[in-house]
């Protein structure tokens, strides 16, 4: 009996460690966040009926697109645009696995030449959840929206982002840039907050994740096996 256990002990390291190390090395964390335009089912609408304006009024920016807002440099995900006295709206139905929407928006410093006056709204369940009236060049706002807040309405996962161009010079258009519009997976609920300036992105842009605990679990199993052998 002890002879068989000793033989097993001699071959055990090559049997256990190589597959375990390979499995841990190949393990990847799931993506817990996604852009609202990619993760949601979104529909565009506008009171302006110019040629093909539903497409031109929403600019999905290329990776690396930046804007200066309040003399700080931000990455921009997408931009809403509309001429004076018109509105542009993106309405989205969010899948239930996402529980939070993190929003950062602003008006670029370079828009000062056209002196835009912008009203921005975030709708939830068909009602105004957040409103930012009279935004000017260089101003930004942020909000954290609980997508499971049924106290606010029957469909809290129905979100709309809306731009109304109150005034702009030189027959131009108003542009509202979104530095972040992120859907976050998870459990529980969060309170909606608003009115705080958006923060610029870190220079490296790297995501931070906690180290995996798989290694601890593996070594616990190995210790139990050796206890049985010896």
Question: What does this entry look like structurally?
Answer:
The chain is α+β, with helices and mostly antiparallel strands and 230 residues long. The chain is built from 4 helices and 14 strands. It starts with a helix and ends with a helix.
Compact summary:
It contains four helices and 14 strands. It is an alpha+beta fold and 230 residues long.
Written as H for each helix and E for each strand, in order along the chain, the element string is HEHEHEEEEEEEEEEEEH
Structural class designation: alpha+beta
Overall form: globular
Total helical segments: 4
> Gyration radius, to the nearest Å?
25 Å
Which stretches are low in confidence, meaning pLDDT under 50 for 5 or more residues running? 6-29, 188-197, 205-215
Overall helicity: 10-25%
The count of β-strands is 14
Q: How would you describe the oligomerization state of the chains in this entry?
A: single chain
**Biggest β-sheet, characterized?**
7 strands, antiparallel
Report the span from N to C terminus. 12 Å
Q: Strand content of the residues, in percent?
A: 35-45%
Average pLDDT, rounded to a whole number, is 80
Question: What brief labels describe this structure?
Answer:
single chain; 230 residues; alpha+beta; seven-stranded antiparallel β-sheet; five-stranded antiparallel β-sheet; 14 strands; globular
Write the layout of secondary structure elements.
Layout: H1 2-26, E1 33-35, H2 36-39, E2 41-46, H3 53-56, E3 58-60, E4 66-69, E5 72-75, E6 78-83, E7 87-93, E8 98-106, E9 117-124, E10 127-135, E11 140-146, E12 158-167, E13 173-185, E14 193-194, H4 214-229
